[in-house]
Structure formats: C-alpha cells, structure tokens
Amino acid sequence: MITRRLGLVAALALSLAGCGQKPEPKASAPQVVNFSIISAESRQTQMADWGPFLADMEKAVGLPVKPFFGSNYTALIEAMRFKQTDVGWFSNQSGLEAVRRANGEVFARTVNPSGHDGYQSVIIVKKGSGITLDRLLKCDRSLNFGMGDAKSTSGTLAPMTFLFAPRNVDPNTCFKTVRSANHETNLFSVGSGLLDAATNNTASMGRMAMLNTDMAKNTLANVQVIWTSPTIPEDPMIRRKDLDPALKAKIDAFIFSYGVGEGPEAQRQRKILERIQTLPFKHADDSHLLPVREMEAAGQLIQARSKGDQAGVKAAAAELAKIAAERKALPAS
C-alpha cells in the first residue's frame, strides 16, 4: 500500500513538473519576403526594371515579395542585419559587409549580358572639358569630383585600390569638393556640368543606354571615360543564413530556373532579366568575394606602406596570404 502511494506521489510530481515546463516555441512561418536592391540608380528607375521580376518571384514562392530600397549601401546592410530584409542584390563590397556583419551568405551571382565575365569601374568627365587623367591627378583642388557610396565596389573601392592609393592620392585633399552619390546621379551631374569628374561603371552606363530616353542618350553623348579599372567580379546575391530552409529552397528553385530553357515563358523571363542587366543567375558561395577581399587588403597595404605603419603592413600582408590560401584550396572549376 505504501509502495503504491509513493508511486502515485512520484507520478503526480512528474506530471506537475511537466506542466511547469513551457514547450519550445516554434519558429513562425515567413509571411513575406523582403528583397533589397542595390541603390545604383534612382528608385523610380529600379522599380521599373525590377517590378516584373519581383512579381514573378512572388508567384513562385507563394508569398508577397516587397522591394526594399535603401538610401545607401549601409542602409541595405543594416536592414539585413536587423532582419528587415531577407534576400537581395548587393555590390561586391556591400555584399562582403553583409556577410561579415549581417549574417548573410552568397548563394548566387549575376551574369553579364555582354558575355564578358565582370564589369569595370570608370571615371567620366564631360566631353570637350579637356580634363584628362593627368589633369585629374594634378590635385590642385580646382575640380569637383563625385564618388560612389563608401560601400560601392566600382564607385569607391576600385578607384581607391587601382588609381588613387598606388599614387598616394587622397581625394579629399586632391579635389575642391568630393560628393558621394549613386551612379545615375553622378552620370547626370557630369553630363550637366555640376561635377567635373565622377566614378561610374560600365554596367550602370549600359543600363542607362538601354533606357533609350532622350535624357539618357543626351547625357551619355556628353560624357567620356578617362580611366578604366581592371575587371571586377559580377554582383552577388545575398540572403540571411537563418532564413527558413523551406523558403530558401523555394527561392533557389525560382532563381536558378528563371530564364532557363526554351519556349515563350523562358524568353519572356530573359527579357525581364535584360532589364536588370543579367543573364540567368549562377550558383555561388562566399568564395565569390575573394577578389574584393583581395582589393580591400591590397589597398590597405598600399596605404599602410605610405604612412610607415608597420603594424598595418603586417596585418594587410597576413590577410593577402590568407586569401591566397583560401583561393588555392578552392576546387578546380
């Protein structure tokens, strides 16, 4: 009898203990996909280009797909960091920051419609201005210069790495004024004479040519390129690592089938991809960012050497060695 009572007490105790334990909360199913887009052009231009693509994505994943346009690259990085966005098209430099700071991962990359794998950063001036690269680098603080966002690969990182840093040129002390803006704004500013020179890139100028408006045609006819960088890798597509696996699978199925194959539907999709300046997307991972990491470290090495910063030289050299080892470990393509 005593044994039976003890058994009942133990069972009751276990039952009460179980009542006190709250079940693990289940992750709520995603209700919307927030898609961020690099701010290389104006919001109106981007929405006209991206609207049909996002509408098709919405049908494919079965959720509303909302565009997120940040005023600059940092806004896009911070939006992903605080889970305000889920996936998006980034520049290489801003994509690297999203991977470092916003729990992002590269899962796809764009493909240049021209057939060339990559694009170039350029510096443009108004045609007939007489401004040459030598004149630009005279650094007499008489010219007004436009750069890209601080996290822009072609607008800032590439010209700093390949042009200014090797010559120990600081744009802030070289030019009369330095303004930061997106590529479209810089293009129109140079074409209209508001800026003497500015950074841009071949992909953005190609998009402007494709618009075929009188304003775009007149602006492009009024500018000329005086410097071109080495080739920069195509842009990465980044998503949050902690996205729901089922949603990741749906996004993958859409991204990697879009515009692929034959028939009227595939042709329609490829026309939409042309508007956003890419062929069908390719698979990629974080190794896609090795070249931009190398550019970044090379620029840091140049600057550290020019300042006599031995600790900086050592850190940049170590980063370059690390990148070389990671590149060597990649499977042969």
TrEMBL record:
InterPro entries, per database record: PhnD
Family annotation (PROSITE patterns): PROKAR_LIPOPROTEIN
Keyword line: Signal
Matches recorded under Pfam families: Phosphonate-bd
Family membership: Belongs to the phosphate/phosphite/phosphonate binding protein family.
Protein name: Phosphonate transport system substrate-binding protein
UniProt superkingdom: Bacteria
